[in-house]
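=== Structural record ===
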Amino acid sequence: MVLVDTSVLIGFLKGKSSDKVKLFKEILLRNIPFGISPLTLQEVLQGARTENDFYTLKQFLSSQRIYYLDNEAETYENAARIYFELRRRGVTPRSTIDILIALTAIDNNLLLLHDDRDFDAMAGQLSDLRILNKLY
């Protein structure tokens, strides 16, 4: 199963043709199960430019599977610890939301499909973070 990050979803919705968007299109064609995090839901919706865009995006996103994190207090503490440890190792993610999305993939045992260099840097330091780069 695959967790699709905001970076890929926005590229897909904008009609871009990056390698990761092409990979997402292949996931759709093959009916491979995927989902998003609630943070991706928020990030995509907050990018809407018009009321109609917001409504259309909300309809599309509400039809997707949402993967949640358990135990919110512990999750945020874990996210802070991961950020702290990554920074100590010379990797400073640009977004704390990316840490939570990575944790969503890890906690739900999902492959992460992204188009954001921060996740590759994190994956080099977090052995449980599995990145989807190609389909077999």
In short: The CA atoms of residues 51 and 60 lie 14 Å apart. The two ends are 13 Å apart (CA to CA). The first helix runs from residue 6 to 13. The chain has one domain: 2-131.
